[in-house]
Amino acid sequence: MAERVGSSAASCWRRVRALEAGGVLGRTVRLVDRNQVGCPVDVICQVRLKSHEEQLGAAFERFVRHQPNILDCYSMSGDWDYLLRVVAADIADYEQFLMRVLLRHEAVATASSHFALSCVKSDTALPV
User: Fold this and answer.
1) Which residue range(s) make up the domain with 91?
2) C or N: which end of the chain has fewer Cβ atoms within 10 Å?
3) pLDDT of residue 1
4) Does some domain include residue 121?
5) Rounded to the nearest 5 degrees, what angle is found at the Cα of 44, between the Cα atoms of 119 and 72?
6) For the chain, how many structural domains are there in total?
7) pLDDT at residue 79 above 80?
8) Do 20 and 38 fall into the same domain?
């Protein structure tokens, strides 16, 4: 990185550390190939809660944070309350999660699942 920006390694690391300290840069991660670890099925799941009571939403969000197969969760405007991105080993695995875990949560009224046929674009880089 230092060579690319025409700087010394020490100077570059100081800048990186300053960006981390300032909250501009978050944690460092390595991206895992889902297919290589047995999670090739990618599902977009829309969730509607039973009500918009604050405690119910908070309970659902705590639940989501503890589900390793839910990779992303967004609180949404519109007809659905949440949008989840869920990975699974296969459709049967997702069905088990949906029927025995997600739909049994006290806050969940209903869900709608959409299976990805292929990934056209997946990026983590921001356009800055």
Assistant:
1) 34-115
2) C
3) 74
4) no
5) 90
6) 2
7) yes
8) no
Q: How far apart are CA 89 and CA 103, in angstroms?
A: 19
Of the candidates 45, 25, 54, which has an alpha carbon nearest to the alpha carbon of residue 103?
45
User: What is the C-alpha separation between 109 and 59, in angstroms, rounded?
Assistant: 14
Contact 43, 116 (CB under 8 A): yes
Nearest to 17 by CA among 9, 8, 25: 25
> CATH number, domain at 54?
3.30.70.920
Residue-wise pLDDT tens digits, 4-27: 888 888 888 898 899 989 999 998
- Regarding whether 105 and 81 lie in a shared domain, the answer is yes
**Total-model pTM:** 0.85
Three-state DSSP at 48 gives: strand
